[in-house]
Prior knowledge:
Blueprint: H1 2-44, H2 47-68, H3 74-104, H4 111-132, H5 140-169, H6 173-203
Helix pairs in contact: 1-2, 1-4, 2-3, 2-5, 2-6, 3-5, 3-6, 4-5, 5-6
Amino acid sequence: MGDSCCSGTVDIRAMEARQRRVLMIVLAINIATFVMMLSAALYSGSSSLLSGSLDNLGDALTYLLSLAVIGASHQAKAKVALVKGLLIFGAAVAVAAQIGWRLTHPGVPIFEAIGIAAVLNLAFNGICLWLLTPYRDGDVNMASAWECSRNDVYEGLAVLLAAVGVWLFDAGWPDLLIAAALLVMFLRSAWRVLGSAWRSYKSGDE
């Protein structure tokens, strides 16, 4: 019996160590992609790129919070998941503000910069999703981290589509259209994460 308990403790510690290692990798990737996307957004004048960079920043904060509560109580994880939902909602608000600004300051963004940044972002986001997929059905902490990473892949595909649209039509509206689609995605994701976190917090079950 004692050996079984000891084995269980070792397994839990090994699992938590793996979670920390994965979250540290995706945290580093998101910080790097945030800097890259923000630089490209400022250079190209792209709303969709700026939306993606804000999303990467929010995700970096999300992964940092996830790291902080590995091994913590269920209630602590649920509370942090609520914060993650609010961060996603905050990204949605920032996207809405950016769309409003671009509508009053129209222009055609540089599609080459959007495309290059989008391809790099999509590649790195794909790596993050692959690393987090084994934990998608785990506790509320890792599941919400996976949700953020999945959104990043959708966001990467959307920004790439924006680059193609700007190139085809030589206009700024495809970029704004994609930014608006990302806004809807962020709002839906925030609703799911907040709902799941609240139910988890109220239930108090592992």
